[in-house]
Design goal:
Among the domains are: 101 residues, Winged helix-like DNA-binding domain superfamily/Winged helix DNA-binding domain (Arc Repressor Mutant, subunit A, Orthogonal Bundle); 110 residues, D-Maltodextrin-Binding Protein, domain 2, CATH 3.40.190. The chain has 12 helices and 12 strands. Helix 2 crosses helix 4 and helix 6 packs across helix 12. The protein is elongated, with a radius of gyration of 23 Å.
């Protein structure tokens, strides 16, 4: 489809396009897998693949690039997903309005979340949502905060959960919890087991950093303290997610920051060692971020409601994760 094909082409397309194909495409795009989409839709994978090819043929555009290890929407696919998701969401909301109150909510929640958002609040919300809506499904996608906000700005997703430092005015923010980070080293590091380390000693030691601390300000508190301590440059390791930062610290590549509630078990198990400063430093605020210009489906709206209920009934002091096993 090209711009010069005109309104007549678009009107003809709207009359003849198969809406079931659109819905199938939305599910495929959300779970980023033909096999997973087939499971959710209770159809065979060949049928899903055929539906996708049929839709691409109708629109005269490739919508998905996929291979053994990757799945990616093309630019045309992103555009179609954004609009088709709005259509499916509208149909979902109409169905909800007309539905008998006793009927069961179905549909899929696409939960976009930053790496290792470890919180009992999120876990409890997932549990309670599942208990209330047994037939609803949840698919998760991990993104860093910058990618998440870009996807929301493009209307590819309605909401996400992640750390935010500078708030963009076009989005809405609901605070979930605050966590504090601390510096750690692995068992092979010369600082491991020492309780007499001075901050000045840490200068010029190798460091492990998060890529998002380079590309955005979402981890501003970590970035600022890392600069103050004057670790060796360039950094020994850079990772996109917390799991890989932890791996490099444990492997002895250098010193890095990890949320204290996540590192606590590794400290107990003798895998990581807490380094100074020992005060509550490097705060990270984690938010539910929503795009008010994009209406959620009834299923997603129900999940957001459950999450807010869980957070609001939890005392604020219990939504601050600062306790750690100090070496």
């Amino acid at each position: 489809m090209t711009p010069d094909q005109g309104d007549g082409y678009l009107m003809a397309l709207s009359r003849h396009i198969n809406w079931n194909l659109l819905y199938t495409f939305v599910v495929v795009a959300e779970v980023e897998s033909l096999s997973r989409a087939a499971q959710l839709l209770r159809r065979g994978q060949p049928a899903i693949s055929a539906a996708l090819k049929n839709l691409e043929r109708q629109l005269d555009h490739q919508l998905v690039e996929r291979g053994p290890r990757h799945f990616r929407l093309t630019e045309a696919g992103k555009l179609l997903y954004r609009e088709a998701r709005e259509i499916c969401g509208a149909i979902d909301r109409i169905s909800a309005l007309l539905k008998d109150p006793g009927e069961v909510l179905t549909g899929n929640v696409r939960l976009t979340i930053a790496s290792h958002m470890t919180s009992g609040l999120i876990d409890q919300s997932l549990f309670e949502f599942h208990q209330r809506y047994k037939r609803a499904t949840i698919s998760t996608t991990v993104m860093n905060s910058r990618e998440m906000l870009e996807a929301m700005a493009d209307r590819l997703i309605h909401f996400g959960i992640g750390p935010i430092f500078s708030k963009r005015p076009e989005f809405e923010y609901f605070h979930i919890f605050k966590e504090y980070c601390a510096f750690y080293c692995g068992a092979s590091h010369p600082f491991f087991g020492r309780k007499d380390i001075d901050l000045a000693e840490m200068q010029d030691h190798s460091a492990i950093i998060y890529r998002s601390s380079i590309e955005s300000d979402t981890l501003q508190s970590i970035t600022e303290l890392t600069k103050q301590l004057k670790f060796a440059m360039p950094s020994t390791g850079v990772a996109n997610n917390l799991e890989e930062v932890r791996r490099m610290i444990v492997s002895g590549l250098g010193i890095g920051a990890i949320p204290v509630q996540i590192a606590e078990r590794d400290v107990r198990d003798g895998i990581l060692w807490r380094l100074p400063p020992y005060e509550d430093v490097m705060p990270i605020d984690v938010f539910l971020i929503t795009n008010g210009r994009v209406r959620p489906s009834a299923t997603e709206a129900a999940f957001i409601d459950v999450l807010k209920e869980v957070v609001l009934r939890t005392p604020e002091e219990k939504r601050v994760y600062a306790k750690d096993t100090v070496s």
